[in-house]
Write a structure and sequence with these properties.
The chain has 61 residues and is α+β, with helices and mostly antiparallel strands. The protein has one domain. The protein has 2 helices and 2 strands. A two-stranded antiparallel ribbon has the order 1-2.
Amino acid sequence: MTDLAVECALRGEPGVIGHDEEDGGRLKAIEFPRIAGHKPFDTTTSWYTEPAGRHRPGVTA
């Protein structure tokens, strides 16, 4: 994820690095206007409720 953030920055591509739900979950720089707070934060998602690393296979906390 950090490598992609650096690559995007060097290209001058603005945005926030994340898995874009509107683009099939693709990891990319999501444009700022698309993340302007229109979507409520879901505190029931597994990446938020589970201990660090548990939601990603192969990652241990």
